[in-house]
Write a structure and sequence with these properties.
The protein has about 150 residues and is of the alpha+beta class. It has a single domain (about 1-150), classed as Cytidine Deaminase, domain 2, CATH 3.40.140. The protein has helices spanning about 15-25, 70-80, 105-115, and strands spanning about 1-5, 10-15, 35-40, 45-50, 60, 65, 85-95, 125-130, 135-140, 145, 150. The termini are close together. The relative contact order is 0.19.
Length: about 150
């Protein structure tokens, strides 16, 4: 499990299942991506799963656009199977660079999703995978900031 500090009282954790999905799509010839699913607890946000790319997604060497329809089906299915506990928590995608950094388009996408979403949470997580180093951030209150990794 990989852990990031959100603040002095809360952490963001990634399950081994989500990390395996990331690793399977880290070094492809085209970008890959999906949505992040998990649960929110008082002291932690747990990313339990990262959906895999679908044939309906559009991807190239330097872009990824996920299918909203396919992603919504995955979110609805997870929510139903967990009796409303597993929810949409954000987005992930890969970049072809060794060290990942979100593009302006990535930043706009996650902040727009946060602004337009009708959710009970007031944040979204963005993960950008690099070949060697990832970028993990939290969108909240109209801003996106990088999180500090604390453990693996």
């Amino acid at each position: 499990m990989t852990i990031y500090d959100l603040d002095s009282e809360r952490q963001l954790r990634f399950s081994d299942e989500a990390l395996r999905t990331f690793d399977a799509h880290r070094t492809g010839k085209v970008e890959a991506g999906g949505v992040l699913l998990g649960r929110v607890y008082p002291k932690e946000i747990l990313i339990e799963a990262a959906t895999t790319p679908s044939p309906a997604d559009k991807a190239g060497r330097y872009f990824f656009e996920r299918s909203r329809t396919v992603a919504q089906r995955a979110v609805d299915s997870a929510w139903k199977a967990s009796v409303g506990e597993q929810i949409y928590l954000g987005e992930w995608h890969s970049h072809p660079s060794h060290t990942a950094e979100p593009s302006n388009r990535d930043r706009d996408m996650i902040l727009n999703n946060l602004r337009e979403a009708k959710m009970e949470i007031d944040f979204l997580v963005l993960v950008v995978l690099g070949r060697r180093m990832d970028w993990v951030g939290l969108a909240k209150e109209g801003r996106l900031h990088r999180l500090k990794r604390t453990a693996e």
